[in-house]
Amino acid sequence: MKYVRVALGDEVRWGTWEEDGVHILAKAPYEELVYDGRVAAADQCRLLMPAEPTKIICVGRNYFDHIAEMGSQVPEEPVLFMKGPNAFNCHEGSVHAPAFVTRLDYEGELAFVVRKRARDVKPEAFEDYILGYTCFNDITARDIQRKDGQWTRGKGMDGFAPVGPLVTDEVDGGD
Q: Rounded to two decimals, what is the model's pTM?
């Protein structure tokens, strides 16, 4: 299934993306999959960010080519960092770097959208917590990241996390 958040005039709703249009949901899909009976033509909908997140938790140094490019070593444990809600941006949003940024990089990522609070999740049960997967662009002010020695400011500026436009459960996240 492909989930979308859309603006229909002044109304913001979740829906499922189908061949005949957007089937509007009565609730968010992570609550319960209940349709309200409406189908909106795709051209009547403005696609929004397909989540209502409170934070993004990212895994850094997660592929070898980038590790080598940055002159780093493969970490023994995952390197985690966060982006706050201010960093979120829709898939067609503009990214504006402040004037003091001299090098802006981007990294295309596969993101997953969590459907419910997760804690102490067993590896075999992770899919119970995932609504689906979406595109994510990890924007970085690389010069600021290097200067600061940590990643919060360089990766967490306003709009530095374009997401979407849809979430799909048609991807096998176990591979």
A: 0.87
